[in-house]
Automatic annotation (TrEMBL):
GO BP term, pick one: methylation
Protein name: Class I SAM-dependent methyltransferase
Keywords linked to the UniProt accession: Methyltransferase, Transferase
EC number: 2.1.-.-
Domain of life the protein comes from: Bacteria
PANTHER family: TRANS-ACONITATE 2-METHYLTRANSFERASE (PTHR43861:SF1), TRANS-ACONITATE 2-METHYLTRANSFERASE-RELATED (PTHR43861)
Domain Methyltransferase: 42-133
Amino acid sequence: MSNLYGPKLSRVFDKIYKGFIDYNAEYVFYAQLCQENKVKSILELGCGTGNLATYFSKDFDAYLGLDYSEHMLSIAREKFPNGNFVHRDMRNFSLDKRFDAALITGRSTSYLLTSDDLLSTFKCIHKVLNLNGYMIFDCIDATKFIPYIRENPTVLHTSKVGNTNYYRTSEWYSMKDDPELIHWTASYYEQGSAENLFLGKDTVIFKVFTETEIRSALKQAGFEVKDSMDRPTYAFDTFVIVAKKNK
């Protein structure tokens, strides 16, 4: 698991990413897809610190947030005491309830590092969906991202939260044995008038996917792709998949 989601950096994540990601716009995007498909109950995998939980809990009949990091869930419960959250590994989990839709947002699919991880996750989701339920999720687009980091091995992203400015420096490269595995080192800073405050450093390996790989795993897990769309973000070119449980 990334250090960013552990005891030292989880609060740095919660603070800084509010300036990277417009969570209201993120909610509107996914809520529209859910409403178009008559979804009433939602399971969010990789819910993190609960930045989408308050929206979904208010506007849908049922919401459950699932995450692998207890530290992230602790922050989510602080921010949203009435929210429903569970500690699980999306690669291997079961639940008593069933849902109309399962969402994976924020490129959390990138932490599924093998084909077995991906397929296992999809199969677990299949089991907790109602008949004709939907899985809606995003992935970093390997066909665009790998050429990008070869041209841009170091990148700086800025974040403003309230009156405070932050920034993140990224160093990344494709692994030789598997170019779809990305070695990423990120350093986080708070900008000050005299000097910048170092907040922490994270090194992680994550995976990017082609749409062909995703479609193959979905088919094996019992899903039919209903829609696919490109969706650029502040740092990554992604594609979003809407898949329906078909058996």
